[in-house]
Design brief:
D-Maltodextrin-Binding Protein, domain 2, about 290 residues, 2 domains, alpha/beta, EC 4.1.99.29, globular, 5-stranded mixed β-sheet, 6-stranded mixed β-sheet, ligase activity, 11 strands
Length: about 290
Amino acid sequence: MLKTISVAHSPDADDIFMYYAIKFGWVTAKDAKFENIADDIETLNQATLKGEYDVCAISFALYPLVKDDYALLKTAVSFGEGYGPKLIKKKGTKLKRNFKVALSGEFTTNALLFKIAYPEARITYMNFLDIEQAVLDGEVDAGVLIHESILTFNDELEVEREMWDIWVELSGGDLPLPLGGMCLRRSIPLHSAIDYENTLIKAVDVANKNRKVLAPMLLEKGLIRVDADTLDTYLDLYANDNSVELSEIQFKALDKLFELGYKHGYYENLIKAKDFLIPSEYEEFRAK
């Protein structure tokens, strides 16, 4: 009997796109069936802190806080390159130093960067889908939009600052912006963990290579919140060749993010991303 492995991801277009090669049966694991759960990213961050899922999408900024219980996966990653979350406000307004802002969660990457850049802002956390309306209603002075909202926000709003620009200033300017990835429970036996990671890598690769087939299927089934053109633009940004496996420059970007969090007191220890991967070379040694 196949084991059931819980795989949690966000309901935004890139996560759904990268997972659904498994859901549609195009890619399967050797000894397990994957059961997917979709929830907003901060709910998934909190769930990972509690150890609820076997495999879970997380904000990269959370990872140093769960490193002892979860290994960092090399696949299904989202980075910004010249783009990313946006700090928005009503058009024509001026923000005070202690402006009230809505963020999508305490452990999100954008929250870490925001808190470093705006230490005097008054922060409230809410579901990412509610942030735009909260700004429009005057419940908050500004908000950081993530996911597809960065492409579709109301005409009454304007961008105060790009989180990309904050990242460039803090990081030195030559690295992509780490946003989200996935992690896997360390208690899973190593040979199974390697298989699950390889399955997920293959799923992201298959989805990426078959985008013209998969994207319309997702739209037809009503699994995506945006129209075809917006989906195409969004996948260009966050589900692309750079999402399949972490590259050297992406590792450097992660290390810089962890360094920034450590220097500003958000992490107890300074870590390097490569030290927390699944040791996939184990299978090669085992085969010899």
